[in-house]
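Human: You know discrete backbone vocabularies at least as well as I do. Show me how you would write down a chain together with its backbone fold. No explanation is needed for now; the record alone will do.

Assistant:
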Amino acid sequence: MTLSFMVTQVESRVSNVATKQTGRFKLPEWLDEDFLQLCMQRGENDPTIRVLKHSVTIGSISSYPNAVSTYRVSVEFKRRPRSRNILDFKPQEVRSLIIKVMNHDNQDSKSLDTIYLIEKEIELLSKTIPAIHKIVSMEYPQSGIQQFTSHCIYSELQPRPLIVVEDLHNLGYCIASPKGHRGLDLEHSTMVMRVLATFHAGSIAIYEKDPSSMKHYEANVWNKQNESLVKDFIELTVKDVADEVATWPGYGEKYSAKIRGLRKNLLSRVNAAVTRDPESFNVLVHGDLWFNNILFKYDMTGTGISDLMFVNFSNARYSSPVIDLQHFLFSSPVDEVRSKNYTRLLRVYYESLVYVMGKFKVNTKPPTFEELTKEMTKRGSYGILIAFILLPIVLGEKTLNHNFLNNPDVIKSRRKFYSTENYRSALKRLLPIFEERGLFD
């Protein structure tokens, strides 16, 4: 599964004074002003930068050896003036950064898999996405896309794998909450489809210029980390959903057994669904495109959307675009939008993709809309997984803040996610669709 399920989320305010400790979580010794000064000098390309002070907020901490922890850091710094001229003196500046660091004490296979994920994200943030954005800004400036994700300030693999990026929240980006709903309305969902299509088209353009640009994203390691744990998790999830559906009048007798039949083979089906077919239409996919990984920026009125960015690319890979489409469509729009505008959103994506590919003058031929819909059905097991795991979280009252795969208390109480009225209503709409597409066979 994605790394977002491997991390225990906690929020605790700390500062860089006294013992550098908050509760039972102690900040790493290397996270000091010298390290932050190096980050700012590299990120700003200015060796004169001097860090004056900083504060740290723990974003997510995990004690598991191969998981990723995050820190939000506010850095106050100044630059050396170029001369004694008063016009060259600059005021102190403040930046907010996000640091993602892997916890590892050895070089076992699981540790190496996680290092690969971070190495891949470093490559993507520092080289691939800037290359895509350069093409977009040159060939399609009217798109209005400022950049697809946060700017990479600094990264390293030794002595510890980590990435430092700008904090988008301090730049006005936030998780959407249109009209108080958990999920995206049609306006937000439509913009996601258009930006996603532009991102996919841009990846085709850079691949045609340099096929080796996608070599970092060809491996599929999504189910290698904690493989037995993921298998157990999925089997238990299928059982819980089947048990819950069994209590629904008019649905239990029809669908419960069919869902239960997926218990032993859903993982293998999903693995086949996400595996790249070199003969098919492929793009660089985000791989974890859902509600929590899409940040929006609004205009001065606070109502109009001015921009959006994607975050958390650790699961990115070169594969079929329907992976992103299913991940998003079966998790993130509100139920009414998904049920009434599924085909409309798919067509928005398709028409945007074809249009932008034309702007980029690529040689790759896009699929027809019919071919795209057939691919959605062919890889539909992935959509089932998303509907069983992410959809109930998005429809829940709280943001995902638990380590689902490693927290036994959460696993025992997960059933409550499937028994909410919102999830019941959404899944009742989806089950006939899954059956019609032959996904229970």
In short: The longest helix spans residues 109-139. Residues 159 and 209 are 34 Å apart (CA to CA). DSSP finds 13 helices and 13 strands in the chain. Confidence is low (pLDDT under 50) at residues 1-22, 399-406.
